[in-house]
Amino acid sequence: MTKRDPFKCFHSSPEVIRLAVMMYVRFPLSLRSVEDLLHERGIDVSYETIRFWWNRFGPLFAAEIRRKRVQNLREYSNWRWHLDEVFVKINGETNYLWRAVDHEGEVLESFVTKRRDRKAALKFLRKAMKRYGSPHVVVTDKLRSYGAAMKIIGNAQKQETGRWRNNRSENSHQPFRRRERVMLRFRQMKSLQKFSAVHSSVHNHFNLERHLYNRDNFKLNRAVALTEWRQLGAA
């Protein structure tokens, strides 16, 4: 069966669309900043066009990245999970962005709720486990919702808590927080859920952990990541 071309009926080339989406999601840039950077490259598009591209193609690219990575992640990401939630203001109301991160800093799942009670924690855990399976160890903070949810699932004995143990998950919020400041926060829960899911996938794709490699290997991995990005959505 021939794969449908997602760029069909668009006047701009797929290369330009991929570049615009990558710049907006990957880097802490506003839509107008991306418009200016593209203009310097001789590409004349409106920031509203970039907004449309990101909304249309961002989830598509993120889903393709997840599809390619999830099978490999199943093999080693179940050793240790780090779970944490962060406060996000939407129109003055506090919402919670839950995040599951593996032992290497790979963001496995992002989930937005209005509460952080047992019901919300249970829904978040089940969503992550449905995609990646059950972890051997789950590191959390001392929020009681985690323990209550894991008792229902049956893996309460796998939970670990303690000071500094969950730094891996807390550090994973930093790239999102930088993006949130540039975007002047969010106005709807569904917008937050959509952007956090896309941002997590793109961050995973380009997270090369340069501190672990020498310069030559880092340049090689960066080139591979860019090559794979330029092939997303190819018919």
Automatic annotation (TrEMBL):
<comment type="function">
    <text>Involved in the transposition of the insertion sequence.</text>
</comment>
<dbReference type="Pfam" id="PF13610">
    <property type="entry name" value="DDE_Tnp_IS240"/>
</dbReference>
<protein>
    <submittedName>
        <fullName>Integrase core domain protein</fullName>
    </submittedName>
</protein>
<dbReference type="GO" id="GO:0003677">
    <property type="term" value="F:DNA binding"/>
</dbReference>
<dbReference type="InterPro" id="IPR012337">
    <property type="entry name" value="RNaseH-like_sf"/>
</dbReference>
<keyword id="KW-0815">Transposition</keyword>
<dbReference type="GO" id="GO:0006310">
    <property type="term" value="P:DNA recombination"/>
</dbReference>
<dbReference type="InterPro" id="IPR047930">
    <property type="entry name" value="Transpos_IS6"/>
</dbReference>
<dbReference type="GO" id="GO:0032196">
    <property type="term" value="P:transposition"/>
</dbReference>
<keyword id="KW-0238">DNA-binding</keyword>
<feature type="domain" description="DDE">
    <location>
        <begin position="78"/>
        <end position="206"/>
    </location>
</feature>
<dbReference type="InterPro" id="IPR052183">
    <property type="entry name" value="IS_Transposase"/>
</dbReference>
<keyword id="KW-0233">DNA recombination</keyword>
<dbReference type="InterPro" id="IPR032874">
    <property type="entry name" value="DDE_dom"/>
</dbReference>
<dbReference type="InterPro" id="IPR036397">
    <property type="entry name" value="RNaseH_sf"/>
</dbReference>
